[in-house]
Amino acid sequence: MLQQAVEGRLRELGWSVRSEGRVLIAEREGSGVILGFVHAGEARGFIDRCETSTASSAAILLEPVPDSEVVMMEEAGIVCFPRDDVEEFVVASLLRKAVAAGSDFARFLEGTYP
């Protein structure tokens, strides 16, 4: 359900989005993002999925994931966001609150996270 909500928000923000299992691939104005909805034990598979892409990649951690997996994804250039942060972004964007635009996840989508 979170994946569908994120997909809807991305479309509203002007992204072209397609879904491949628990991965969203979004493109807009020549830039792209890959968003994986990741459970514990799935880091390696998501890293493999992203390694040949030039798109920015983020893992949305659906549950607590071992630190070793988070470090492995971060070392591969994948930004990790806890589920709660992404849920807050979705709710704020539904309510059209300014906080959605200033969230780390929104900044990632705009290419300005860190």
Explain briefly what this protein structure is.
The chain contains 6 helices and 5 strands. By secondary structure, the protein is of the alpha/beta class. The longest helix is centred in the C-terminal third of the chain and has 12 residues, at 83-94.
Q: Strands across the major sheet, in which order? A: 1-2-3-4-5
CA-to-CA gap between the ends?
Answer: 28 Å
Uncertain runs with pLDDT below 50, 5 residues or more?
Answer: none
Percent in helix = 40-55%
Overall body shape? globular
What's the structural domain tally?
Answer: 1
Largest sheet: 5 strands, mixed
Number of helices: 6
Can you walk me through this structure?
- This protein is of the alpha/beta class and 114 residues long.
- The protein has one domain: Trna Endonuclease, Chain: A, domain 1 (3-Layer(aba) Sandwich).
- It contains 6 helices and 5 strands, in the order αβββαβαβααα.
- It has a 5-stranded mixed β-sheet, sandwiched between helices.
- A hairpin with a 2-residue loop joins β1 (16-20) and β2 (23-28).
- α1 (2-12) packs across α4 and α2 packs parallel to α3 (67-75).
- The model has no long low-confidence stretch (mean pLDDT 91).
